[in-house]
Write a structure and sequence with these properties.
This protein folds into 2 domains: 230 residues, Malonyl-Coenzyme A Acyl Carrier Protein, domain 2 (3-Layer(aba) Sandwich); 60 residues, Alpha-Beta Plaits, CATH 3.30.70. The chain is built from 14 helices and 10 strands. Helix 8 packs across helix 9. The strands form 3 sheets. It has a 4-stranded parallel sheet with strand order 2-1-9-10, with helices on both faces. A 4-stranded antiparallel sheet has the order 4-5-3-6. The relative contact order is 0.17. It starts with 6 loop residues before the first strand and ends with a helix. With 310 residues, it is of the alpha/beta class.
Length: 310
């Protein structure tokens, strides 16, 4: 087993989904099958079938894709542990990108899977509704540094919503404001501009209309102290008690995701190996951009699990 002081688990957010995710794990590993079955029961809908068979246009809906990615990620974690007879390397830290922070809470035993899939589906529903009330979008800006992007946001009335790695920053705002930001970013020499396929201006002030209702939803959920430090999206510092976790989940809706700083915190505190657990390889790519010397492994399908490093 790898040294615990050198390991971090990270969990992906919205955008990592694909039709067919998790089906191989479901068919082979009883632990993964139990996770998907529990989620179907908790939500009283066939989420597993949506993951396995689609259709894609249903899967990508915010209220569906968020629990779908979370459940698939936890199924990946459980399958990896079953495959290695529970000797999967234990982490010193867990973290997740946006939605992935909820997966990290399950991994750190803060929330039960049953409660979390219900909470995340409500989160997705409310985020979609906020996007309908205050139409907005998100734009990834590649190739500009943070100070330049801050200037673009100031002049276009947009906000930085994700700082992912050097040279990759996502902004959020109203449709017209983003169009202006796009023009300014081109003028400043952005290498690429990528509109994100989301239903609103997530992690920005346009999410504030749902804060009160989401806070009420959180107040009804049972939280437990984490058994592993969770690195917060908003502060890039460890969350070690229930109250700070609840505050983080509310702030996260309308605040910038500090992914680069989160990875740097884990790296500066001993983590040299990162396991990205869940569909896709987005976070592994970001981590290598932050520091090419960091080692990354993906656990998203059967092949990854059978060749994992123990």
């Amino acid at each position: 087993m790898a040294e615990t002081s050198r390991i971090a688990y990270v969990f992906p957010g919205q955008g990592s989904q694909r039709v067919g995710m998790g089906v191989d794990l479901y068919n082979i590993y009883s632990s993964a099958r139990e996770i998907f079955d529990e989620a179907d029961t908790a939500l009283d809908l066939p989420l597993s079938r949506l993951c396995f068979e689609g259709p894609a246009e249903e899967l990508i809906k915010t209220k569906n894709v968020q629990p779908a990615i979370l459940v698939t990620s936890i199924a990946c974690l459980k399958a990896a542990r079953q495959n290695s007879n529970a000797n999967q390397p234990l982490p010193s830290f867990v973290a997740g990108h946006s939605l992935g922070e909820y997966t990290a809470l399950v991994a750190a035993n803060v929330l039960s899977l049953f409660d979390t899939v219900t909470l995340v589906r409500e989160r997705g529903r409310l985020m979609y509704e906020a996007g309908q009330k205050n139409p907005g979008a998100m734009l990834a800006i590649i190739g500009l540094d943070e100070e330049v992007v801050k200037s673009i946001c100031f002049h276009s009335k947009t906000e930085i919503s994700n700082i992912n790695c050097p040279g990759q920053i996502v902004i959020s705002g109203a449709i017209d404001a983003l169009a202006e930001a796009n023009k300014l970013a081109k003028m400043k020499g952005a290498r690429r501009l990528i509109p994100l396929k989301v239903s609103g201006a997530f992690h920005s002030a346009l999410m504030e209309p749902i804060i009160a209702e989401f806070s009420e939803v959180i107040s009804r959920v049972v939280f437990h102290p984490p058994t592993i430090p969770i690195i917060a999206n908003v502060t890039a510092q460890p969350l070690t008690d229930v109250n700070s976790i609840k505050e983080e989940l509310v702030k996260q809706l309308h605040s910038c995701i500090q992914w680069q700083k989160s990875v740097e915190y884990m790296m500066n505190n001993g983590a040299t190996t990162f396991y990205e657990i869940g569909p896709g390889k987005v976070l592994s790519g970001l981590i290598r951009q932050i520091n090419p010397e960091l080692q990354t492994f993906n656990i998203s399908e059967i092949e990854d699990i059978t060749r994992q490093v123990n």
